[in-house]
Hints:
The longest helix has 15 residues, at 49-63. The radius of gyration is 15 Å and the shape is globular. By secondary structure, it is of the alpha+beta class. The chain is built from three helices and four strands, in the order E-E-H-E-E-H-H.
Amino acid sequence: MEKITSFTIDHIHLRPGVYVSRKDSVGVEVVTTFDLRFTHPNVEPAMENAAMHAIEHLAATYLRNEESWKEKVLYFGPMGCRTGFYLLLKGDLESVEIISLLKNCFSFIRDFSGEIPGATERDCGNFRDMNLPVAKWWSRKYLEEVLENISYDNTHYPE
Length: 159
């Protein structure tokens, strides 16, 4: 079998960033998959499941309610390697076009207080596995270290 696209990325030189992972045609629409990389793979520790789960609930809620973008949001969820998230949006987009959206989203998570949306037995299959304080920590780190200092090197995959 052919190696899938995400397994062809140089994870040795990959740093935290906002990357276009792929673009797919679905009928007449283009779907852009973004790689929101939070950690330096195989160097920094992987993210904790409970923090990722809290980020997933909060980011998905924010993105699907954000007035300018909600009609374009198809999916937000964790990477299996626990180094970041995938965001799928309708449209032929580039990383720089979503930086403001991501800043707002992760500021929302960093500043969030209260009950995590959907974190109930009725609404979630693993509702007890959430860690809001660590989710807030990761969101602040991603904002400060990546989104506030975005550059070519963390918006284009290493060669």
